[in-house]
Amino acid sequence: MSSREAFLDRVRQAADQGRPYRVPLRPVPEGIGYVGADGDLCEQFAAEVNAVGGEAFVVADFAAAGHQLHQLLAEAGAKSAVCWQHELLDRLGLADLLAAPGVALFDYARLAAMPADERRQTLLSCDVGITSCDCAIAETGTLMMCSRFGQERVASLLPPMHIAVVERQQIVPDLIDAFRLLEDRGLDQLPSNVTWITGPSKTGDIELQLTTGVHGPGKWRVIVVQ
């Protein structure tokens, strides 16, 4: 028996042992737990991003988004960026936007061609990570990020500043809507990892002292294109 089969066998045994103790579930009425968001989804999402310690910028179009991105790159003093390969970023013209101020772009294609040690050092030295998202949740100011080739979670977790570019059609009112998106894709299409990002990285010690940026980006910026 392979290690994988042995692991699955242990899971099946544990599930069988737990069956007598399962709590019977009653049908949940439609709409229970659904909160949604009032008003304009872009404005509500941006307000929640600001409320959880991020900084949102609502812009009218891609030209304004590019201008805002240049300001954020200047704020970070960025010389290099690890970036998603994403159709929204292509429409934004990300490669040209980074080339103008001389910021080196490292995406999956470029990183995959590097030796492992060089790739690791490059990722550790990147000043910003630039992504889009699978969806943005107006209720909580959360980004749902599904890991896949070209859209690895390292871009949103490793650099000291994470910049996400979101457009209106990606924003859903409620967390339940985000789960419905995953459900609609089918269980066989679920990614290996789904990351939920609500604010910059935070951690607290036993004395309730909150510190940002210890286990991920200390600065979280979201550009929202209306």
Salient structural properties:
226 residues, alpha/beta, Rossmann fold, 6-stranded parallel β-sheet, 4-stranded mixed β-sheet, 9 helices, 37% helix
CATH topology: Rossmann fold
Q: What CATH architecture do you see? A: 3-Layer(aba) Sandwich
Beta percentage is: 15-25%
H-E string? HHEHEHHEHHEEEHEEHEEEE
Q: How are the strands of the biggest sheet laid out side by side?
A: 1-12-7-4-2-3
List low-pLDDT spans.
Answer: none
What does this protein structure show overall?
By secondary structure, this protein is of the alpha/beta class. It has helices at residues 3-18, 41-51, 62-76, 87-92, 94-99, 108-112, 116-125, 154-157, 175-185; strands at 55-59, 80-83, 104-106, 128-131, 135-137, 142-146, 161-167, 171-172, 194-197, 202-204, 210-212, 219-225. The chain has one domain (35-201, 208-225): Rossmann fold. It is built from nine helices and twelve strands. The strands form three sheets. The protein has a six-stranded parallel beta sheet with strand order 1-12-7-4-2-3, sandwiched between helices. A four-stranded mixed beta sheet has the order 8-5-6-9. A two-stranded antiparallel ribbon has the order 10-11.
Summary of the model, kept short:
This protein is an alpha/beta fold and 226 residues long. The protein is built from nine helices and twelve strands.
Give the helix/strand layout.
Layout: H1 3-18, H2 41-51, E1 55-59, H3 62-76, E2 80-83, H4 87-92, H5 94-99, E3 104-106, H6 108-112, H7 116-125, E4 128-131, E5 135-137, E6 142-146, H8 154-157, E7 161-167, E8 171-172, H9 175-185, E9 194-197, E10 202-204, E11 210-212, E12 219-225
Parallel strand pairs: 1-12, 2-3, 2-4, 4-7, 5-8, 7-12
Antiparallel strand pairs: 5-6, 6-9, 10-11
